[in-house]
Every structure is written in structure tokens, then in C-alpha cells.
DNA sequence: GTTCTAGAAC
DNA sequence: GTTCTAGAAC
């Protein structure tokens, strides 16, 4: 029997009984049963052929399941590194390789758009992952203040600044003290810095900006 | 990370 | 009445 079909008849009845009755969804129950957890989802994604767009012996690149821009990828090391807190100087080559691969993926996806390459200060998902995200932020999955601020405030830590930090101090020493406050900051356009009261009004505004690269850097 | 939804804000 | 956000999820 395939691993994924290994749900007992009793469990199936239990799942059915909980459809629309409990506060947890079927999927939550199933995930808990299989001792998986949403925060471990990137492990599964690494082996999902529909998600993987590139890989080599050191890393895997996947499409973000809920892209917050036209192009949004995650670059992850094959070796298990839980988070930035665990990287040391011995990981510098890996970090540089991840950034270089990210830049290649971005160029391959769209040569015109600006991209950023970096890490969330306090990521929700386990397993080190570098975001490769185009700066249009034009996506139906971008819905909350937390989404917006996680990519447009200092909560988003550029890859090159992580690398520089590890080179100089041997670790990632976060200068981001209160990450929670950054996520609750007022909504501000990442291009012109204009403030907005709601996500929908901000989303209407940002599509008006040109987020293509300056012409002299276009190939 | 997302989904769901109560109740605030409009 | 509708839009929008924020917090629970055992």
C-alpha cells in the first residue's frame, strides 16, 4: 500500500465525522495524524515535482505555493539547516551559491523585472529558505499587512547583507530587535513610500509603479 | 504558512 | 449593509 493511502477505515470515519463540525479542517486532522505539521511543509515541497523548478547537489529551488508577486521562488539547501540562526562561516559558500542560483532563476523567469533576494527575519516555515521575489507584488495571495510588511520592511533581510554579516562576525547577528513591530507597521508603498489605510487601496496603488530594472542594467 | 470568521470600521 | 482586519486554530 502506498504511504499516502495508509489511513485506516476508522480514521476515515473520524475524518468524515469532523467535516464542518470541528474547528479544525480535515486537512489539519490528517496532517496531525501523519505527525506532519504546516511548518514542516518545505521538506515535502522539495520532493514535489510540480513545485521544483531547479536543483543541483547542494540546493533545490521551488515555486512558492502562495506567491506574493508575479514571480516568487524559494531557494533551499538540501542539507538540513533549520534557520539563519544556525548558519556559520562554514556555510558561506552555500549562502553565496544560493544567492547566485536565485539570481539565475530570476533572470530566467523575467529579465525586465526587479527582484529581491533575501530571508525573513523570523520565518514561519522551518528549513532555511531564501526568497526570490519580483517587486511588482501583484498577486491575489498577498492579502494581509503581515504579508506586505514581511517583504517590504527590514523584516526582509537581503541575502548579501546576511553573507556580509556572517563573513564579519561568523554568524547572523540580527540588527532587527523587534520583528513583531515591523510586521505591524503602517502600510507604506515600497516605491514612493506613500502611506495607505487598507491592503486593497495599497494594491490598487502599487500596480501603477514601474518596477522594471533601470534601462542601463537591462540585458 | 493558511483558513475561518467575529466584529470593528466604514 | 458591506468591507476589512486580526486572532484562534487544543
Automatic annotation (TrEMBL):
Residues 39-142 form the HIT domain. It is found in: Nucleus. Signal peptide: none annotated. Keywords: DNA damage, DNA repair, DNA-binding, Hydrolase, Metal-binding, Nucleus, Zinc, Zinc-finger. It comes from the Eukaryota. One of its GO terms (cellular component) is nucleus. This is Aprataxin. It comes from Candidula unifasciata. The lineage of its organism: Eukaryota, Metazoa, Spiralia, Lophotrochozoa, Mollusca.
